[in-house]
Model the fold of this input.
Amino acid sequence: MALPPALDVSSTCPLCEPTPHETLWQDHDCRVVLLNDVDYPGYCRVECLAHVKEMTDLDKAQRVHIMSVVFATEQAVRQVLQPSKINLASLGNKTPHMHWHVIPRFENDRHFPNSHWGETMRVHMAEPLSAHQKQQLKVDIIKALKTEA
Amino acid sequence: MALPPALDVSSTCPLCEPTPHETLWQDHDCRVVLLNDVDYPGYCRVECLAHVKEMTDLDKAQRVHIMSVVFATEQAVRQVLQPSKINLASLGNKTPHMHWHVIPRFENDRHFPNSHWGETMRVHMAEPLSAHQKQQLKVDIIKALKTEA
Done:
């Protein structure tokens, strides 16, 4: 890919800080973190390292690279968790620093078929990821990125 | 891009039908439609023509192409409407046929800073798009796609 954007940081942006989450994969442009969300245990986030607001603030090569990481994460999450559906989203209304939500959805999860930002549909106790599943996510992201290259 | 996927259709899928919405742009793989959402007048959707469920069901060239249309739509929406933020999302829990939401968000819109699937924050009467703005979206999508090629 092209040279990464200048690593602009914002002193008030939580995503410009070192992440408090487990990092599954990282390069010079972005990191994949596992949120360990209690309702959505395999919920990952792909975070640009630079403080960039919109995808169209990046050049094409940078966009293709970020999306290849998003899709490698999707692939790994599908392999490890076999969800009913994958949800992908880049909102950033509260934190305008480019990040992608990669959310495995199941028909019995808390909000399905609504957005996980929408109305709750049921109580559901999700099983936390095992250490093996976390390790497998790391392995499968690397494997999926090789086929993206 | 590579050859498009076989144009699988599902007899029960609304996105396999001809669209009821205004089409801003279309090729052999996908179409960009304007939803004319009363709360979000510039809300566009990029819809794959084939009945494909996940982005990772497509090959890499197909993914890059679909995303280049999503980003061209984002670019056009930014130019015409100058929103505070762009929201991009591919959910498909209710309609598992690949489509991308491209939503211009404003600080005074109905849900900001929440997801537009989330809690309502205020009453807001949004101005419908003018015929000129619709035409400009069409022109700007084509222009942005040229720089994506």
